[in-house]
């Protein structure tokens, strides 16, 4: 059983052009929702207690936001309540909650991963922020083209010596190991 789009939109109180809907979809697509599931000990046949973690979009190196909530189960899935630890999270309708609920429009709520207390404790800042090459980041997928560049070191050195004639390396190549005179620097700055 999945959360319906109608139930999601009714709960969020938005339209397809609402900021929290657009930003929620972006968060989900960029995989900032790093943990999402149900809490075993508080779930039963009538409802599911939810728990999730979402990276802070403006500060991903800080601790993630915690998302909690409850879905009522019946003939359809209904959102009972949602909260997030972000500054807008008390309303239960922030972009992080939006991303969390969008996940359950796409996936069956009955197959939710069970999140234990150990899972919550082990997902730390250190575990979240692993070095990933830019080309492997989901938001850049398919946008980066690899090109092999051949660089001639002598050409680069010549370029910089021509454009920075008063630099130490340029002066050294000209045979002047003492460096430029003050007059030479002033004249070059006037050009």
TrEMBL record:
Taxonomic superkingdom: Eukaryota
Sorted UniProt keywords: Metal-binding, Zinc, Zinc-finger
Sequence ranges assigned to domain SWIM-type in this UniProt record: 75-105
Entry annotated with the keyword Zinc-finger: yes
GO MF annotations in UniProt: zinc ion binding
Name of the protein: SWIM-type domain-containing protein
Lineage: Eukaryota, Metazoa, Ecdysozoa, Arthropoda, Hexapoda
């Amino acid at each position: 059983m999945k959360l319906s789009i109608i139930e999601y939109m009714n709960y969020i109180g938005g339209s397809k052009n609402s900021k929290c809907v657009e930003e929620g979809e972006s968060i989900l697509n960029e995989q900032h929702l790093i943990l999402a599931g149900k809490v075993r000990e508080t779930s039963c046949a009538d409802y599911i207690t939810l728990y999730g973690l979402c990276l802070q979009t403006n500060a991903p190196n800080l601790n993630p936001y915690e998302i909690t909530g409850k879905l009522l189960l019946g003939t359809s899935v209904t959102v009972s309540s949602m909260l997030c630890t972000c500054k807008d999270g008390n309303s239960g309708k922030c972009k992080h909650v939006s991303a969390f609920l969008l996940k359950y429009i796409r996936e069956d709520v009955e197959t939710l991963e069970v999140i234990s207390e150990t899972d919550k404790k082990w997902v730390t800042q250190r575990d979240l922020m692993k070095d990933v090459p830019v080309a492997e980041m989901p938001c850049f997928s398919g946008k980066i083209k690899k090109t092999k560049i051949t660089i001639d070191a002598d050409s680069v050195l010549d370029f910089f010596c021509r454009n920075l004639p008063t630099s130490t390396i340029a002066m050294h190549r000209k045979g002047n190991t003492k460096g430029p005179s003050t007059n030479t620097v002033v004249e070059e700055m006037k050009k």
